[in-house]
User: Which sequence fits this backbone?
């Protein structure tokens, strides 16, 4: 199994640009989670999906952030427009069943907004 | 939500047992204790979880006190590859899927 796949692994962009992060969960998993990690705030849950439906997006910082899961094998996290304070490592994780089952994390996308 | 308290950092000699404590004095009866770890520059990795009984798997053992107010993660023979940040997490009581990560314990295994 390839595990959770995230792309790109590194992204450098300028303030105001649109950024799209991508995630492919483990095949057969039906819950997907997006996290953000910074030195100041640690690891934060942004949003999670169950069976492609957003269940809780209370962690999404503001309207500039949006996430979609059009099918069971693909999800995107979009930031538009991006700001320097969005610089962080963004992790995607998936699990089989509900999230209290083991979550498998991807390698992360390191985003730098200049 | 039950909060957890962990030491900021710990050291352990290679080959020795690493015992990582966690306090969760406000834990509810139906809340599980989870442990994840994060090796530098990687995504977090699940280690083990438990409710009230002690648990063991190929990675570690989890000892939960009888009153469930604290627990200890034991790595029986620490290696240099076990150097990581270890997170003790209590699953939120509203039966959602959230795992709330705290600041964790930075374990340094030295030769």
Assistant:
């Amino acid at each position: 199994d390839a595990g959770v796949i995230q792309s790109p692994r590194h992204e450098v962009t300028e303030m105001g640009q649109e950024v799209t992060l991508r995630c492919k969960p483990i095949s057969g998993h039906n819950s997907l989670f997006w996290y953000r990690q910074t030195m100041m705030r640690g690891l934060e849950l942004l949003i999670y999906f169950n069976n492609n439906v957003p269940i809780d997006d209370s962690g999404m910082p503001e309207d500039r952030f949006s996430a979609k899961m059009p099918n069971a094998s693909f999800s995107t996290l979009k930031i538009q427009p991006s700001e320097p304070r969005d610089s962080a490592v963004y992790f995607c994780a998936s699990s089989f069943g509900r999230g209290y089952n083991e979550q498998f994390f991807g390698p992360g996308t390191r985003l730098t907004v200049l | 939500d039950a909060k957890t308290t962990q030491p900021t950092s710990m050291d352990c000699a290679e080959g020795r047992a690493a015992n990582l404590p966690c306090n969760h004095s406000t834990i509810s009866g139906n809340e599980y204790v989870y442990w994840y770890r994060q090796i530098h520059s990687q995504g977090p990795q699940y280690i083990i979880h438990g409710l009230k009984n002690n648990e063991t798997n190929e990675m570690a053992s989890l000892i939960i006190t009888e009153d469930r107010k604290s627990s200890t993660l034991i790595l029986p023979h620490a290696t240099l590859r076990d150097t990581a940040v270890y997170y003790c997490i209590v699953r939120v009581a509203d039966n959602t899927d959230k795992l709330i990560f705290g600041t964790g314990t930075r374990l340094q295994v030295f030769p």
Observations:
- The CA atoms of residues 67 and 77 of chain A lie 4 Å apart.
- Chain A has no helices and eleven strands.
